[in-house]
Amino acid sequence: MIAITGLSYHDTVGTHLIQDVPSDRLFESVCLYNERVMGPAHAVPVTDLAVRSALFNRTPSHLAIPIDVQPWTEDTPSPKNKPGHTSLAGQPFTVRPPVEQLTAAADVLNSCSKIAICAGAGARGAGDLVEQVADTLGAPVVKAGLGKDAVPDDSPYVTGGMGLIGTRPSHAAFEECDGFLIIGSATPYHEFWPEPGQARAVQIDINADRIARRYPVEVGLVGDSTTVLRELVPLLERHTDRSFLERAQQGVADYWAMHREQAADHRRPMRPQTVVEALTDALPDGAIVCGDADTVTAWSARLRLRRGMQFSFSGTLCSMGALPYALGAQIAHPDRPVIAFTGDGSLSMGELASLAQHRLPITVVVLRNDSLALEIWEQNALLGNPQFGNDLHPVDFAAVAEACGVRRIRLDDPADAPTALAEAIVHRGPVVVEAIVDPHEAPFGESLLQTHAQHITQAYAAGERDRRPMAANLLEPRRVAMSPAVQSVQDDLQSFT
Known about the structure:
- It contains 19 helices and 15 strands.
- The chain is of the alpha/beta class.
- The protein has a six-stranded parallel β-sheet, with helices on both faces. A six-stranded parallel β-sheet has the order 11-10-12-13-15-14, sandwiched between helices. The protein has a three-stranded parallel β-sheet with strand order 1-3-2.
């Protein structure tokens, strides 16, 4: 991505004139390439470099152009800025580790009997090879948040996500494995990975400085995942004992059976799982789904993507941006269906106006619970504190959408979810589906660590105002059966219901 912003006049920067905000400094920590454009002659080489950096480093670039420089058409290049000395010519970026490193990695993996794979954003484009490795090693594939579309969710090797938004079978695989293959992931939720020293580990990453950043790997393979895996596969020995993979697959079946049972519960307010199941069934081939930061992060992680679908969200900065992502995706891919899956704490009204203005056929699904629900659960589970400052003023998103000229669908009856979402996706134009959901539904009950469960009971004892419905939700029988952490505090939770 390239961000282009303005600056004050070139000769008033830093003089505290109106709107004198140094945008180049603001973007410095989030853009690998970040430059102030000094004139037309300067614009050509820095734009070339900004594009090159964005494409080949897969990071944002930023150019800041002073307001009076923007209309300039004439400029005198310096002797060092020879016209035409840069271009956008590029080559496919492939890096192959030495044969000795590949052999050492294969030796580590061949020596292990229970191998878990973690696939992150760096595994995108290598999904078929990841599945081939998983089949050879009898290894379940766990996906970090940004790796959700690296391997389709209907793959027989995929256990789902990880971390607080993950699944119990994913964490069980990490807890039991003796071998660990990390493909293109530097997830900040590495506390859910195997304990340091538990598993012999190999890591593949295009960036050398990410090797062993989150786990003490024995062998690091620096390179793009497609090239590395293509070289690694012939060196791997087929594991004939499939019991570790089969246990994971049974765990996956049990997990999705629980999820479907929760979705079929037609109480009101509606459970978010109802929306997830209906949206999963309604997703057309080739769909691009854009997630968001909120409890909807957990619910979008439970969407089951098929082969050929794409997914993304702000996985590191956790910016609230499903609709901006969707706007960009729809403009870039006008022939593909685009869905923004967001929450009432993150949807921006101004973006709805942009959606209407450009008549982009994006389906916006907003989970409305009138609260910053993720913050409530995190204040409880991460800090042991009762919720504070998380109420949202009720907004009628359906009415706002209609006022912007966007078709609206209000969904508050669970029985209507399949029809409403299918209707929204086939609509030829922008549409907002406002789904009224239960604010007390736990987004990560079965994926809690024991410390999280202890913090929750601490928060409840300290006076959490919604402890009764929240505790009751955590104590749902199938959730208790799947979560060792909830089991460890079951009696305490019972006392709050």
